[in-house]
Specification:
Elements (H helix, E strand, L loop, with lengths): L13 E5 L26 H10 L5 E4 L14 E5 H8 L4 H29 L6 H4 L20
Antiparallel strand pairs: 1-3, 2-3
Helix pairs in contact: 1-3
């Protein structure tokens, strides 16, 4: 057992995939391993697992609050997948090709969510949502000349 994770660092039957591999804010030197077209800003473990599951990868384990040795201050998380299952589900033969496939799925789902959010924002508020439908009144301009009551000037 290695900090609650039952994998050995050199085990070829399992592949470790860190969320930092798909972070578009990082450079290649800082640890991003896919190109920018397959990465998103600040990915989390749930998004990564969803992208892997959408590709057909079933045997996976999520390890939360785990930091990559290159980024020890960030507890980003780790996804451990079975190499045999991952390679057969995605049709790839290497870890790099597997990460590119997961990254493109991750990017597509991120873009779809972003587009859906923009559409709902452009559509406007729902019918019963009073707080969203209320209009903000502009500042009242006070005239320098006040009206007098009862016909006085």
């Amino acid at each position: 057992m290695f900090y609650g994770v039952d994998f050995v660092a050199g085990d070829p039957s399992r592949i470790s995939i860190w969320t930092g591999y798909f972070d578009s804010r990082l450079t290649r030197r800082q640890g991003r391993r896919v190109n920018r077209d397959c990465s998103i800003p600040n990915p989390n473990l749930e998004q990564l697992a969803y992208a892997a599951k959408s590709l057909g990868i079933r045997k996976m384990k999520r390890v939360t609050n785990k930091s990559h040795p290159k980024r020890p201050r960030l507890s980003e998380g780790l996804l451990i997948v079975s190499s045999k299952d991952a390679f057969s589900a995605t049709g790839t033969e290497s870890k790099e090709a597997l990460m590119q496939a997961i990254g493109s799925s991750l990017f597509a789902s991120h873009e779809e969510a972003k587009q859906k959010k923009e559409e709902s924002k452009a559509k406007g508020p729902r019918k019963g949502d009073k707080s969203a439908r209320s209009q903000r009144k502009g500042p009242q301009i006070k005239s320098s000349r006040r009206k007098k009551k009862f016909g006085r000037r």
